[in-house]
Amino acid sequence: MDSELIDLHIHTSASDGTYSPQEIVDLAKKQGLKAIAITDHDTIEGNKDAIEAGMKKGMEVIPGVEISVEWNKKPVHILGYYINWKNEKLSMELQKLIKFREERNPQIIKKLNLLGLSISYDDVKMRAGEGTIGRPHFAQVLIEKGYVKNEDEAFKKYLKRGAPGYVEKRRLSTQQGIQLIKNAGGIAVLAHPFTIEGINHKEMERFILFFKKIGIEGVEAFYPLHTVQQTQQLQAIAKRYDLLITGGSDFHGEQKPQIQLGSGFGNMRIPYELVIKMKESLKGWKRKNG
Ligand code: AMP
Ligand code: ZN
Ligand code: FE
Ligand code: FE
User: Whose C-alpha lies nearest to ligand 1, atom 11?
Assistant: First the structure.
C-alpha cells in the first residue's frame, strides 16, 4: 500500500486555478490524499472555504499562499504555510499586490491591442471570474479568440517575460515577502527552485544558503518540473542546512490539464512525513519565542 500522500502546492479559483476550494477538497479526498495546502498567487481568499470543507469532509487543509517576490530583478516565488490567514497586515499587504495587478492588467491589454489583437480587459475579467487575475487568464482568452492554439503558444508568443505583451509586475522584495509570511506565523519556503531563471545545479547550494540567511525555512524539493536528480539535490541541501522539505503539484485544474492533483505528471509521491516535520518546527519556534 502506498504510504500517506500529500500535495502542498495547489491553486484554486481564488487565483488562476479552475476548481473552487471546496472542489479541491473533494478531489483530494477522491485521490486519497491525507493533507493539502492551498497556495494561491498573492491571495489567501481560498483558504477559509477549503479549511471549512476540509473539516466537514475529513481532509487536513494547511493554510497557505504563494507570493511573487523580486530577487536580482527576477521573479521568485515564496510559499507560506500555516499562515494565520486572519492576520491583518498580511491581508493588507496582499491587497496591495492585487492592486498592483489591477494596474498591470490594462497595460497588458494595451500591448496586445498594439500588436493587433482584439482583446479587452472585460474579456479577461469574465474569464477570471471572482478570483485574482493573472496571465493564464489572458492566455485563455487568446486561445478562445483563435490567436493561439494553446497556453504554451500564448506565453511564448505574447505573455512570457521578454515577449511583446509582457508587463513587469510590481513585486515585494524577497525580504518583504518572507517577513510578511513569518509575521503571520507562517513557514516561508522557496518554491520550485529549479524553475528560477539562471540558477543551475552548480549554484543551487549557494543560492539556497543565501535564501536561508534572509529567512527561508524550507525548500520545495518535490515539484513536477524537477527531475529526480534535482529533487534529490534539493533534499540533500535541505538536510545539510537543516531546512524543511515541501512539495506539491502546482495544480491549476483545467488551466494546466497535464498536471494532476497530488501526482503532477503522474509519478510524484509526496509523503505525509513532511507535514509532521513542519508541525514539529512550528512547535519549536513557539518554544523559542515564548
Ligand atoms: P502572473 O502571476 O500573472 O505573472 O502569472 C503567473 C502564472 O503564469 C503562473 O500560474 C504560471 O504558472 C503561469 N506561467 C508563467 N510562465 C508561463 C509559461 N511560460 N507557460 C505557461 N504558464 C506560465
Ligand atoms: Zn498560477
Ligand atoms: Fe510558482
Ligand atoms: Fe504555483
Answer: 136
